Records
---
Amino acid sequence: MSTEEQNSKKELIRQKKLEHQSEAKVVRKIVFIIAIVLFLLIGGLTAGGYFYIQSALKPVDPGNETKKPVEIPIGSSVSGIAEILESSGVIKDARVFKYYVKLKNESGFMAGNYNMNPSMTIPEIIESLKTGRVLQDEVFRMTIPEGKQLSEIAGIIAEKTNSEQADVFNQLNDRAFIDGLRTKYPEVLTEEIFNANVKHPLEGYLFPATYPFYTEQPALEEIVSVMLDKTNAVLAEYSEQMEEQAFTAHKLLTMASLIEEEATEQADRDQIASVFYNRIDTGMPLQTDPTVLYAHGEHKGRVLYEDLEIDSPYNTYQNQGLPPGPIANAGVMSIEAAINPKETNYLYFLATSKGDVLFSETLDEHNQKKAEHITNN
């Protein structure tokens, strides 16, 4: 190859390099411009989204206290509730409300008829839905303590509504009255409450809590519905576990009621639950005194040997397994223990006069603790 040809080839290579360099510069400029545009676009979208969400979390109209009727049907999901609130003009965006509830881990919303206004904040709306509180002046409160039986609850209701306890108690046991409630709460009030041996169908189903009321003499159905709303909301928290463990509401509330009646303030309810489950698994009778007292229909400080002879399906000294139904209402701690018992080998427990609960794996160990803490007192 001649010198002229070599120089021509070198020049061609140099020209191509210059072209590539020029193209590379153009590409870098285009990429840079696109990156800036994307950055500004993403930044704008982020800022816009931030301000939109911030606005959506604020009251619809801070100065407007006009009451708006809002009906939350039984069984409504969070998405359904959010749509109802948006269509009622109480919140700005159902999706933002739904994600706020999810991120805050809020739950236990109660069905009912509410009076809300556009000036309410999201936390105020959530609190109203959790407590069943409407925007009216509270007339009175009714407190149903844990561990109360249906007859005692009837007395509390009667006192607050200027009624006769016997009348309230009779209505709480009326089949037609209960059937009406079952249409509203089919998942909670199942056919199990009408089992032949169940003494009182609503026993254990009226959740212990403090309830506000906004009329002087609300109808009994309204009072009971508020309590069943709460029961329904609490049980909904454990729906997945109940399905996994083949728990019906009736079975869960029955076990929880035994734990509630046996527990002291200092008691480890999950360990008491383990004793009951271990006894069931080994074929032992539960032998829990509160069931005997429930069978007798009276409260006593001490169960005598003669009391244990009562012929009743509730007598867990004579019958294995759970009694036919709950023997009292149970709080969240007892329900939690019933569905999440501690894993132990305990078969016995003993409550001392100081409120401590002592657990044992064998009868000999149990009798020794009984002699130390009970017999010698």
Note: Residues 274 and 341 are 5 Å apart (CA to CA).
---
Amino acid sequence: MRRLHEANYGVYGVRKMHALVKREGWEIGRDQTARLMRLAEVQGVTRRAKTFTTRSDSARDLPRDLVNRAFTAVAPRCLWVADITYVATWSGFAYVAFITDVFARKIVGWSVAATLKTEALPLQALDMAAWNTGGDLSGVTHHSDHGSNDMSLVYTERVRELGAMPSTGTIGDSYDNALAETVNGLYKAELIRKRGPWRTAPEVELATLEYVWWWNNQRLHEALEYRTPVEVEAAYYAENRQPVITRV
């Protein structure tokens, strides 16, 4: 229990630990898992309330909401959600942008920077996501909140240039970008607060690189029936006989 818990950032609660030990080949019940976790003195992590990090600009004509809080997708590359969070370091704030594919909860693009400027943060995450999926985002709806950071004119134009459809939610309403907010909250709970304090933005960037790999390839997601994003995506393409892009 201690080994498996530590191998997964020490964040799993009873449900995920139960699913994990079963994947490891152990025949074990959920109550027994809880008892053994207590004996091993390990427990799950808890999340805190969200802090808003984007600055809205009501004067601009932003894309309309194409999602309307329906964060579901029938296939990969149908709906992406994006958001920004921040990390306090000894040398100032580090800002982190994530882009997540809703179908398999897979983080397809991310960026860490010491500034909120569009060119240095969300645009780099977008370009990473585009590169990881072959560069053509035709058919993708890209949804973000109403903050000026990731819905600036240059960013929206880049979304359209790649073939995706930009979408934005209501000002200051976390429910209109709930899935992206969830990714941010888990990132802060599972990595930032557990592994801090942080010295510099590059230190946060390296840790985020490792965390994103774990999130996509190893973390069990309750919404995916305790499977990983990579497993869910691979199963979809195997069933539909479509090629899988393997860039990392």
Note: DSSP finds eight helices and five strands in the chain.
---
Amino acid sequence: MEKFAEQFLNLEIMAAAWPTVVQGLWVTLLICLVVIPMGMAGGLLAALASLSPRRAVRWPMIAFVDFFRAIPPLVLLIFVYAGLPFAGLDISPFTAVAVAFFLNNSAYYGEIFRAGLLSVGTGQAEAARSTGLTAGQSLAHVVLPQAVRNVLPDLISNTVEVVKLTSLASVVSLGEMLHQADLARSVTYNASPIVLAAGIYLAILWPCVRLISRFERRMAT
């Protein structure tokens, strides 16, 4: 047990690695601030397009969602980072992460928004239109708020997954939290910085997990 604590729970090494890990935490938060709003916006557009009455719009969007939900995000990230330069697009690691995660999360958020929109009865939109609202106003003020409320636990759950997904950015040497913790591990030959990073992830995401459970219980009643 003493050897385990020395290798994984060494407080002195954690204290020494703290500035390095926190530096990576800011990069992780920056990725989230870029990817999550972009993913939600892209997902909403994907949901609306996949419900379009026009086949020329609906079927390509369904194919887009299915493809990017099926492809592993790590493979997508490597393809974007290593493949686009061959097409003449030399992008930074941060841009590669933003593009890959945007495509991946737009597909997942799109399915969540689509389920939410389908959960709202068509009578809601028809009643809103009968009051003089346009189709866009009916969607924005009547249908969409109800749809978001119905799938709010799923939206939060997917957002938690996005935060954990940022750890894949270490593959393209972007200095997010896990990458920085691994650098500290390679210098100290000790896994305590990795455990420190895991503890920070837990501290950030645990309240979100509890919030999801609270919403699920409230909606069940």
Note: The chain has a mean pLDDT of 86.
---
Amino acid sequence: MKFFKTSDGLKIAYREHGSGVPILCLSGLTRNSTDFDYMTPHINNARLIAMDYRGREQSDFDPNFENYSIEREGKDALELLDHLGLYDVGIIGTSRGGLIGMGLAAAVPARLRGLLMNDIGPVLEPDGLSAIMGFLGRRPKFKTYDEAAAALPTITTGFVDVPPDRWQQEVRNRWEERADGLHLRYDPKLRDAIEGADHSVAPDMWPFFDALTDKPIALIRGENSDLLSRDTVTEMQKRRPDMIYVEAKNRAHIPYLDEPESLDVINKFIKAIS
């Protein structure tokens, strides 16, 4: 794990793997760079750079939770690229990471070679958002990794044929086991940031998607996703008939990215931005 300092003084963690076309890997809302651990061993033609957002995993927590925003996290991503001396990169964005990618496409288009979105689009379904708020910022009731790994197949709907060792890895990626039970691997004030945002009017994110007009894009949707609907995918395809697309079978929000169909799309995306 490596670190750099942001312009406002926080220490941000990141990892690098491989060589080739540079790709910035941006994780989900409560998650971290381990989102890409399953994919990484299968990719041999790219330089993968995965960061922990501020307030997640090994990065510093922000004393001002209002900085847990897409705008600030996007700025951190650009500062990481500057730190590495990289001007333009491809982005693989899982959930929130895809939203950040669309935001960067609108704000600094020259710095993006293209965007692959993992189970995210310009419209977020209420059921999926409600599911996220159900656990956001709250410690799980489980006391041990083993207890959590045994329960996840039952309480995690939409995932089929997931081997036990994957659930064991997932609980370790999500939580930290201590003497008094499992703890979050992110700042629980992330919930305050989301609740404090103005939700009175849902933002129109289609202009951000449309900002990708002249760049290669790809989309992986979990077959059973409750956050990204097929109707939204249809509209995305209508606007971008050239979008590389697949549904990951037996997956919900979010695919692990090592599914054969997901890897096929990832490799096509890498070729398109190389």
Note: Strands lie at 2-5, 11-17, 21-26, 46-51, 89-94, 112-118, 175-178, 181-184, 217-222, 244-248.
